[in-house]
Amino acid sequence: MNSRAETGAGEGAAGVGWRPGWILAPGHDLAWFLVLPAAAVLVAMGCHHWLPYVALASVNLWVTIPHHCSTWVRTYGMAEDWQRWRSRLLLGPVLIGGIAILGHNWAPTTLLLLVTMWDHQHSIMQQHGFARIYDFKAGTGTPRTGRFDLALNWVLYGNMFLTAPLFVQYWVRELFTWRVPIGVESVQAIQGFSWAATALMLAAYAVHLAGCLRRGDGVNPVKLLFLLASYGLWYGTAWHTDSILVFGIAHRLMHGLQYMVIVRIYLARKARDRGESGGGLGLSLAGRGGLWQFIGISLLYALVFQLVVGQPQPLESFGFGVFEFNSVYDAIPELGVGRFSERQMYELFAMAMVDAVAMVHYYFDSFIWKVSDRTVQEGLR
Q1: Are 226 and 35 spatial neighbours (Cβ–Cβ below 8 Å)?
Q2: Residue from 1, 21, 15 nearest 216 by CA
Q3: What is the C-alpha separation between 291 and 286, in angstroms, rounded?
Q4: Residue 288, C-beta contacts closer than 8 angstroms, at least 6 positions apart
Q5: Does residue 265 lie in a domain region?
Q6: Helix (H, G, I), strand (E, B) or coil at 18
Q7: Computed from CA positions of residues 100, 168, 246, 123, in that sequence, does the dihedral angle turn out positive or negative?
Q8: Residues near 79 by Cβ (< 8 Å), separated by ≥ 6?
Q9: 359 sits in which H/E element
Q10: Type and span of the H or E element at 3
Q11: Range of the domain at 285
Q12: Is position 133 within any domain?
């Protein structure tokens, strides 16, 4: 979810002091936005202790692919979005799919880094978008609050990436791959600067909140608890596991479920306000029985996706990440490069499919979820 809104006004008058506001309702927000992150951590840690390593890859797929399907329902399934974004919805997947295929053939590591960075940006913008909705609902903050929220998200997430042991190993290895000389002292200096910048950002944010309270602009405490829960998940898993898959399960459970909830609510409110029965598949899923249809379509999409990715293997190995692919590239003996094994070749094929789908999802969200868009606001009131 992407947000570039700078609104500080909501459904009511400007708040005085602490003014709680809810995206859905107190019970729903407690479940999906405050408690879910902690539950996601417990699920991820349970998977880590009780499932074999190869199974974690499939768990990652099953908790992230359904929320991609929500994007397709939100875009292709709504007549309104289809009319507004027709050219982007048609050309975007073709261009991005081509980039993914070329990247995996010519520069797979560079493509992986690109997708990873885009994923981080996408996650930051979703949480920032929810934070803006919280202020909008409560009528709290000022036009500057959105910029402070966005800066806080970038600094907190960036600090985690630079300092958490889980991620340090990746960017340090990549710097070595690029032949950038870096030693222990350099890493410590980078991390020291990151922590200092984070402390300054937190202090500036606290001063801004104090100013909002003093001037009577109001502060939504639920938004602060939401941000605390989100970064509690990210920081907690990044410091207490050495498995990127475990981090991914916790992150994608939170990110994916929250995304699916907001899509479902968005569709339901669009259908309620407009009373459209012919607004496309998206609005038809918002009616009676639509919730189970929505869930069923998402799970069916995940099943088909994994069947396609796992097609080279018999069904008994489905779901556990152990796949083969029969094609191989020719060796390049003059460069000392051997042939790809069947497993390596298939992994490239599978990664290309996942990367292409993920990048299309990120691309669509960059323009369909701007909270500053009046059309989007109609479905979030």
Answers
A1: no
A2: 15
A3: 7
A4: none
A5: yes
A6: strand
A7: negative
A8: 278, 279, 280, 283
A9: helix 342-368
A10: none
A11: 26-372
A12: yes
Percent with pLDDT over 90 in the chain: 31
Angle subtended by helix axes 108-138 and 86-106, to nearest 10:
140
Q: Which residues contact 9 (CB under 8 A, 6 or more apart)?
A: 136, 139
> With 60 as the cut, is the pLDDT of residue 316 above it?
no
Contact 325, 342 (CB under 8 A): yes
Q: Which of 245, 241, 265, 242 is nearest to 253 (CA)?
A: 245
Structure tokens at 272: 């309620």
- Which two structure tokens, joined as six digits, stand for 376? 């989007």
Amino acid at 299: L
Q: What is the pLDDT of residue 342?
A: 55
* Count of all residues that appear for the chain in the document: 381
Helix (H, G, I), strand (E, B) or coil at 337: strand
Number of separate domains in the chain: 1
Q: What is the pLDDT of residues 20-44, one digit of tens each?
A: 999 989 999 999 999 999 999 999 8
pLDDT higher at 210 or 48: 210
Fill in the DSSP letter of residue 23: S
- Would 2 be classed as within a structural domain? no
Non-local CB neighbours of 175 within 8 Å, separated by 6+ positions: 182
Q: Looking at the domain assignment, is residue 329 inside a domain?
A: yes
Closest by Cα among 1, 25, 35 to 253: 35
What's the rounded Cα separation, in Å, for the pair 104 and 171? 20
